[in-house]
Amino acid sequence: MGRVFCSTILKVETIRTNVVGTLTLADVCREKGLVLINYATGCIFEYDSGHPLGSGVGFKEEDTPNFIGSFYSKTKAILVEDLLHNYENVCTLRVRMPISSDLSNPCNFVTKITRYEKVLLPISIEMAKRNLTGIWNFTNPRVYMNPNFTLKTFNLGEQAKVIVAPRSNDELDASKLKNLMAKRPMTRALN
């Protein structure tokens, strides 16, 4: 759950969705004895001296968020992540792509993962069935790339010129999820 687009402009709406909405769901699920699978964001970190760009050192679940450069990330890092620690019924899955109700949007996380042969979605369903809670970096531990695809990237300075608010740039360490899969196989999605 969350509001990414226009979060810099629509601050009250962003608070309602990202903070009040998420906490209300956690609270209602707690009252009903349910685990809440919270698809959250990994956009709460930025590379630093302990996690240099290109080093392969990713942020772990227990690391404290260090990116509050955008209003969106501020609501997620400072408010929601910190407050959800008080709910024993929440399983937070940090993803690195936006989720929206517009399934025709090619940037939508749900649209992207439904096109992959091997996906994390079945794992999240199994995690709910097993009542797993806590924070999980919910990313594939390896990169899937079409060998015919040519990726053109730009540096952080060029990125800053084309975005409305600063963007979190980080790598998440998925070893906790990978270790769970090795100990308690659920699917072949991470093979």
Automatic annotation (TrEMBL):
It comes from the Eukaryota. InterPro entries: dTDP_dehydrorham_reduct, NAD(P)-bd_dom_sf. This is Uncharacterized protein. It comes from Erythranthe guttata (Yellow monkey flower).
